[in-house]
TrEMBL record:
Pfam families the UniProt entry points to: Pol_alpha_B_N (PF08418)
Region named Disordered: 82-107
Stretches assigned to the DNA polymerase alpha subunit B N-terminal domain: 7-74
Protein name: DNA polymerase alpha subunit B N-terminal domain-containing protein
Compositionally biased tracts (Polar residues): 83-104
Amino acid sequence: MERRKDSLRNLFQDLGCKVESDAVLDKCFELCESYNVDVEKLTELWLTFCVNNNSDIDPTLATLVKMENAVLKKDYKLHDSTMENNANKNQSTMDKQGFSANRNTENDDMLSMYGCAETRPPKVSF
């Protein structure tokens, strides 16, 4: 773990950032794991966040949380198996309710408006 921390500390130093504590590095690793980004990407996001927000480039726990809220939560999916399971359940529910079948006919109608699909008579439900 110390080797990983030293590597991340060096990445920040290469960008001109000074890391004050190991707690900051631990938070960075937590963010990497939570949002499925590697440390190189995280440091790039950090620098971009600092430039765009006119913020000090030395990471702190408070500013990392601000970056998480402003960037990661908006642009990256939280890497969590429970969220993936919920997404699968929602898709299954939609399929059971017939939304998937309705989408196909809507797409066909839209394509026919542009002459890209053969027109069919509407389906009649009894």
